[in-house]
Design brief:
- By secondary structure, the chain is α+β, with helices and mostly antiparallel strands.
- The chain has 2 domains: 39 residues; 50 residues, HU Protein, Chain A, CATH 4.10.520.
- The chain is built from 3 helices and 7 strands; from the N terminus they run ααβββββαββ.
- The strands form 3 sheets. It has a 3-stranded antiparallel sheet with strand order 1-2-5. Strands 3-4 form a two-stranded antiparallel sheet.
- Helix 1 packs across helix 2.
Length: 108
């Protein structure tokens, strides 16, 4: 699902909100999450999962094209750990397989 698909879905489920309002809400949510992560804070969405920032140490890498050794700088990367409820819902029997949409219970 893309950001625009998320906005369209939320707008459809909440007809009392305009698409512009939904766009602002989604943007504000992502902005706040990004700000918290950039500060090194943990973002936890109960039942969904938690976003944290992990530190990757500097290391020696290789250029895949030339095989030449390359120094890779230390960096911080976002990390997501799915929550128990999300894992259970994904693995629930009867859940459609990825890429398989259902219409009124019939696989297409």
């Amino acid at each position: 699902m893309t950001r625009s698909e998320l906005i369209a879905s939320l707008a459809e489920e909440n007809p009392h909100l305009t698409i512009a309002d939904v766009e602002r809400i989604v943007a504000a949510l992502f902005d706040e999450m990004t700000i918290a992560l950039s500060k090194g804070e943990r973002v936890e969405l109960r039942g969904f999962g938690a976003f944290t920032v992990k530190q990757r140490q500097a290391r020696a890498g290789r250029n895949p094209r030339t095989g030449e050794a390359v120094d890779v700088a230390q960096k911080r990367v976002p990390f997501f750990k799915a929550g128990k409820e999300l894992r259970e819902r994904i693995n629930k029997p009867g859940t459609p397989s990825p890429g398989k949409k259902t219409i009124n219970g019939a696989k297409t």
